[in-house]
Amino acid sequence: MSSQDSQRLAIIELTGRVLGILYHQGPQSQDAASLYASLADPAWHEQWPVQTPELTEIASRMTDGLSDTNETLSEAYQRLFIGPHALPAAPWGSVYLDKENVLFGDSTLELRRWMRKKEIGLQLDQNEPEDHIGTLLMLAAWLAESGHRQLVDELLAWHLLPWAGRFLELFIENAGHPFYQGLGELTRLTLANWREGLLIPVAAKELHF
């Protein structure tokens, strides 16, 4: 593996794990507590592997959002990812890729078949769809850590990037909280970096949401 490939996988490993946790685990989660604490220091962006001109502003927005007084971070996470009301931006791929906008749609089954074929196992809560944005980001990080360049590219090109842009568009527009708006923007610029190194084209899939 070339040094460039190794560097790319290292970036995906770090950024995928951080972003995945922030989407998949609320601020009250013990496993994520240290991560949220580190984001309270606005200088965290200096260590982010994907540097862009807008990163400083995004990091400041996220840090300020940790102490937002209009809506707590836990309240915002509940509203955006759990309910009980309709979620502003559903975090599951099949909502965008399936004509019926359902969970566990054909795209989820396609992802399952791919994982089974590649002998990839996930430990998920009962009845939790595998195509949650947070799960896929953490899966990409795990595959990158394991050095599976081809599998990382297949996951991104076939099962994440075809719908992630639409999710992030809705998420940023409707987040209604500075931390999560910033998280969406951070994810968008990070995925753009991931995409630059792909050796296979991103699958063209029709979006239905």
Question: Which short descriptors sum up this protein?
Answer:
209 residues, mainly alpha
Low-confidence stretches: none
What is the chains' assembly state? single chain
Strand count, sense and barrel status of the largest sheet are: none
Shape: globular
Question: What is the helix content?
Answer: 55-70%
Strand % is: under 5%
Strands, total number: 0
Distance between the termini: 39 Å
Structural class: mainly alpha
Q: Look at the structure and give the mean pLDDT.
A: 94
Q: Radius of gyration over alpha carbons?
A: 16 Å
Q: Give helix and strand order, one letter per element, not per position.
A: HHHHHHHHH
Enumerate how many helices there are, as a single number: 9
Can you walk through the features of this model?
- This protein has 209 residues and is mainly alpha-helical.
- It has nine helices and no strands.
- α1 runs antiparallel to α9 and α3 runs antiparallel to α9.
- The longest helix is centred in the C-terminal third of the chain and has 26 residues.
- The termini are far apart.
- The mean pLDDT is 94.
